[in-house]
Design brief:
single chain
Length: about 100
């Protein structure tokens, strides 16, 4: 089984997502979404090219994969798979990615 690693920002994103969901949707929903995100990251580690490019958001060679209302943003060429961010799709993803 191929692995994935979370950048510090991605780790913080997941913690923030979980905290937000616990407060607004309850613990079971928060745990379910986080589990689904980790399941997706394991799937991406196995087949990294299934994600899509978003040239409208960045010219970086990264890919995006949607899980619920979140975008897993990752580098498909890294070994192990590097997850850069996990962001809600309603956020200004382009500006957030430019900050780095």
């Amino acid at each position: 089984m191929k692995q994935y690693v979370l950048a510090d920002e991605a780790r913080k994103d997941l913690f923030g997502i979980w905290n937000y969901l616990v407060e607004h949707a309850g613990l079971p929903a928060a745990d379910r979404v986080i589990t689904d995100l980790h399941d997706a990251m394991r799937k991406l580690a196995e087949t990294p090219l299934i994600g899509h490019r978003r040239e409208d958001l960045t010219d970086q060679p990264i890919r995006f994969w949607s899980v619920h209302s979140y975008l897993v943003i990752y580098d498909p060429d890294s070994q192990p798979l590097g997850v850069a961010r996990v962001l809600h799709a309603s956020r200004d993803v382009e500006s957030i990615l430019e900050e780095k």
